[in-house]
Structure to design on (254 residues):
C-alpha cells in the first residue's frame, strides 16, 4: 500500500470519527434538557452496482448484481446515527464496501473479460429541521455533505491472453440539500422517506429512500429501498456510479 493510499484511508476514517464526535458533542450540549433522543442503526443493503468505467481499450458499462457482491464481498460496514432535539436533528451515515467481480463486454467484434475491484467509502453528515410535526407524521429539511472515496482497479483480458490494467482513485465532496420524514400509519407502523440532491466534487449526485417501519419499545425495524447515484467528470475512472437495492435496518434508541 502506497503512502498516498494510506493517507486517503486515514482521511476516510477521520471523517467518520469527526461525524460521530460532532453528533456526540451536540448530544452532550442538549443532555440537560432531557429531551434528546438518540438512535444508532445497523443495516444491510442488498445492493447492486451499475456504472461507466474507464477500462484499458475503452469505456464500458459495468453491472455487478447484488448476489455477485455478496459472493465476492471482501469487507463491508453499514451504519448510521441520528440525534433529535425538539425539531432539530443531526445525522451521520457510513457505508464501506470492498468488492470485486468479472464481466464479459463486447470488444472489437468479440468479447473481452473485465475484472473490476472497487473499494468505496460513502459518508453522509447533516443537520435537519422539522417543518411539520403532527400525529400523522413529520416533514423536514436537511442540509449537509456527502463524501465519496473510490478506489477502482480494472484488469482487461483480450482473447483470453493479453492483459491491460488501469487503476485510479477519486475523492468527491458534495454539498447536499433534501427532505426527510415519515407518514404514520398506526401507533407502531409508519412509512419513512428521504430524498436529497448534491453537487460540488461530482457533477451531480442524489439519493432516494423509502421504507415501511415498525416501532418497538427499544427501537424500530425498517425494510425499504435505497438508491444512490453519482454523475462524475469524464476524466474520472468511473464516469457514473449507481448503488441501489433493498435495505433492512434495525435501529436502537437510547
Amino acid at each position: 500500500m502506497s503512502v498516498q493510499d494510506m493517507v486517503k484511508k486515514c482521511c476516510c476514517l477521520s471523517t467518520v470519527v469527526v461525524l460521530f464526535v460532532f453528533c456526540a458533542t451536540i448530544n452532550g450540549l442538549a443532555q440537560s434538557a432531557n429531551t434528546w433522543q438518540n438512535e444508532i442503526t445497523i443495516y444491510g443493503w442488498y445492493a447492486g452496482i451499475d456504472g461507466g468505467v474507464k477500462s484499458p481499450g475503452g469505456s464500458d458499462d459495468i453491472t455487478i448484481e447484488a448476489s455477485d457482491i455478496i459472493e465476492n464481498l471482501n469487507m463491508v460496514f453499514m451504519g448510521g446515527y441520528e440525534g433529535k432535539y425538539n425539531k432539530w436533528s443531526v445525522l451521520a451515515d457510513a457505508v464501506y464496501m470492498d468488492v470485486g467481480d468479472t464481466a464479459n463486454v463486447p470488444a472489437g467484434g468479440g468479447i473481452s473479460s473485465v475484472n473490476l475491484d472497487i473499494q468505496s467509502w460513502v459518508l453522509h453528515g447533516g443537520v435537519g429541521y422539522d417543518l411539520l410535526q403532527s400525529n400523522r407524521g413529520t416533514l423536514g429539511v436537511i442540509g449537509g455533505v456527502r463524501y465519496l472515496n473510490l478506489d477502482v482497479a480494472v484488469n482487461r483480458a483480450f482473447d483470453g491472453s493479453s492483459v491491460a490494467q488501469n487503476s485510479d482513485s477519486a475523492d468527491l465532496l458534495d454539498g447536499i440539500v433534501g427532505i426527510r420524514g415519515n407518514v404514520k400509519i398506526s401507533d407502531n407502523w409508519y412509512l419513512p422517506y428521504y430524498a436529497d440532491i448534491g453537487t460540488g466534487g461530482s457533477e451531480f449526485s442524489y439519493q432516494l429512500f423509502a421504507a415501511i417501519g415498525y416501532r418497538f419499545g427499544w427501537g424500530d425495524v425498517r425494510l425499504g429501498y435505497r438508491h444512490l447515484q453519482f454523475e462524475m467528470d469524464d476524466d474520472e475512472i468511473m464516469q457514473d456510479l449507481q448503488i441501489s437495492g433493498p435495505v433492512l435496518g434495525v435501529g436502537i434508541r437510547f
Remarks:
- The chain has one domain: 3-253.
- The helical segments are 3-30, 66-72.
- DSSP finds two helices and twelve strands in the chain.
